[in-house]
């Protein structure tokens, strides 16, 4: 199993009483809640944490894309990846991802990712997403074209990375006479690894598992039963196409907190994970899943995966569902080993900073996890995961 430190870069200084006036931390929350002086401090703190993960021996660090919200301050994750490219030496840098359907010119992603891949000497992991429904409100993009714009943008980027240029691309949404990206990607076998994060879209799983792609499917924040269901679906799609999916094609992203004992871990994490659940994740369903964004089948799945993303969720409820792992080192190791044996994922992406968790507790969490959890699980799962 491989271990990644994923950061959302939330606006941790958010006035948590915002919900007395506003119904969401996304799209409609006035940007007057953002203080640039505090933003300056947070961005640099968060970059320090990601760089520290390299020193602690993580396999990778992860940044991602969200717009117009307090939940994640990375509308352009390539800026963060570029800053990290020169300040890290060993970790892979996963951009999870760029929301392809939002873009008028996907070649900007082909160029941006190729630059990071060259600077790092091939440490880039390319993440492609459709983006959650809220992003379509923020960018004014019709969600009904989400799937076809995503797939067409993907095809254009792969053409730019794998075909000698200049070449021509003619699609329904994108037309280019000269596809000729400079620089070329550093990883050319045949391109950087591609990961597909999702909330649980059956169409996305079918597409990612197809033999033409065999991309790593990454299940984002969800109960362990939901993760098991969707990863089983991926394996079934692979089997239907005549091959066996490996752990390297399956990843899980979730928040985690480890401290000296179970009691200390719960006490230190409670305030901050509940702020994450009740304040930062808060949004109405119509914002998360706008009409046309997904099929009825996938909407049912996504609603199931996101059930409980409400003001009522507590540390106890998410621990019970397996959405949040919290405890002393022995408890965390036991839970992760149990879940990995059941599900078979090969990549574990942990949010070791979440909500309002301060810098000192984030570093403590990272250090105990790296020293007392990761080494043990590398040994016991190395033969199973990938």
UniProtKB/TrEMBL annotation:
It comes from Rhizobium puerariae. SUPFAM superfamilies: Bacterial luciferase-like. It comes from the Bacteria. InterPro entries: Bact_Lucif_Oxidored, Luciferase-like_dom, Luciferase-like_sf. The keyword Signal does not apply. Residues 43-341 form the Luciferase-like domain. It holds the Pfam family Bac_luciferase. Keywords: Flavoprotein, Monooxygenase, Oxidoreductase. This is LLM class flavin-dependent oxidoreductase.
